[in-house]
Model the fold of this input.
Amino acid sequence: MPQTLIKPNPLTTLFNELTAFSKETWCQYLFDRDLLVNKVTPEQRTMIIAGASQCGEKLAATVTAEHGPMTAPTLAEKVCTVEHGDSQNISEQVFLATFTEPNMIKVYDEPMRKLARLSLPGFNEKMIEKIVMDHELYHYLEGQDPTLFTRRTKIGLWHFLGYEHRTTVRAASEIAAMTFSWQLNKLPYSPLVLDVLLLQCYNEKAVAPVLEELRAVNV
Amino acid sequence: MTNVIIGLLLIASFIFMVWYCMKGYNLMVGFFIMASIWVILVLIGNAIEPTAVLKGKSVIDVLTFVYADGPAAYAQSILVNIFFGAFFGRVLIDTGIAATLIRKVVELGGDMPRLTMSLLCIVTAVIFMSMTGIGPVISIAVIVLPILFSLGISAPVALFAFMGSIMAGIFCNTVNFIQYHTMYAGFVKSAASYSYNDYFRIGLIGMIVGLVVVLTIANLTMHSGTSHNWAVNAQQASGKENAPWYSWIAVVLPVLGVVLLKLPIIFGFIASAVYAMLTTGKLRGSYKEVTRRFAKLFTDGSIDVAPMIGFLLSLAMFNNAATYAAPYFTALIENIIPTNHLVLALVFALLVPLGFFRGPMNWVGSGAAIFAVVLAANPGIPVQFMYPLTAATTIFPQHLDVTQSWVAWGFGYTKVASKDYLKRSLPAGWICGAIMCVIIYFMYGNL
Done:
């Protein structure tokens, strides 16, 4: 009787590898994409990653405690204006959602449909939308509270006479939003797996370098 | 009567050209067709009622002047400058100097979208005082635009601010000066002595005015709050090697060479390119390797401007055809052409929008014929006053226009709808042009 070789589905292999990356790895991945990455010292980087991560988790716990079983997307729809667009792809960038202060969330449906069509376990359109909305909800809540770590933590860029030009680091806010969504949805993996899966949907060739980058920083 | 009818037909062809431009058809072929239509109309008009400009000229003389002398004269004075300008642009890209400057500017502004956008626009304008061609524009755009998007700036605002800052830089660009000035001097021989040095002061003022207007409009039309995008970028994470600080000056060396040392511009481009390559280690290697590198940069630069060259050559045919068409425009508009400097400046300010869509106030459009008539009606007008007026109605609208090759590329890259862009670019072009017309009057109107 001939033996049948069952080849593993490459998409499942990719998903399994992505879900195995640690939170620290995804934080480093986000930080490496920040425009100010070269201006942050290694000590500051460690401090910002730890603080932002804690900030996102703490806020998720507060939201759960205050609003009980109400899901974050329901809360987001209650406090924000949520708009749906089909897609916004600019050159090599694919947009999942945008948040504009004070309370405008725009979610793009086409990328979410494409992600859902990958038919990965537990990855239906509703779940994907929930992850995305929770991420954007963090940005709304961040805008309401200037005492949050991601709002008050700044780095110095340059000095002139007595003036020091200080700025927030965008990656901090994104790390906090990621952990916020991660915590609220009790996901067993980072919401940022969506990033790589989106590349798989829109620009398959770009997956390998990103995967290499993640493997290199995996800790 | 014949002159009036031919004049009206020429105006009808203008309108056809505007429609042609708006449809996005090929401009090189378009201007060749326009030149041919004008030659036919001029020959018909001359056969019915001879004009002074065609006195003693055969059909072959006319064809030679339009289709041979036009491009040939253009080649002598402009092509070389454009080729070397494009070569220099390639050097700034390949040495990493342009990218480094942009990264440094972002690190200066930080996570403050308005400040960082303003700084990026200023450095872009400075870069385009020397650089030219669609290749360098794209090379800079693929660095600057994703940065603006990641700061939460919407695509229409980002595209407009970037294209606007190029427009501002071009107002003081050496290559563009030579290009338009050659056309001007074609109609007024005595203007040939007017140099970039004479123009530099007003060029710099125009650049500043352009930047202020563009940044004001960009700031007024962007969201007031912070924006965050969850977007996936297929590009690799940043962290590329920076060019050393002492190489950065190369960006403005050609302009400084011309203004301070009175160097010829081509030598300025070559010397600056050598400096840029020397300071970034691109002259290392064997003689063969280095010369091959130079040849490649020149070739890449030439490819960058190749579509523009084709267009400029057909435009040169059209410009020469416009010389013969001038009497017919004179018949129509001679009596309404102002000769008072203040009125001229105000009329130019009012008509700046006609510089869009390669219109009749644009040197690289159908403006050559109108400017020929204006210059003929004002024979002794100082070039210091008149040339910058024509530059203002040309450069501001043209470099924000949808018919500009890199603007058209930008639409495809950013997926911005043309109406979202035009509602910012049209007022910006007009305001910049109008302000400059007033400034030019106050600076040179009494000469």
Summary: The longest strand of chain A covers residues 93-100. The CA atoms of residues 81 and 158 of chain A lie 38 Å apart. Residues 24-217 of chain A form one domain. Chain A touches chain B through 47 residues (CB under 8 Å).
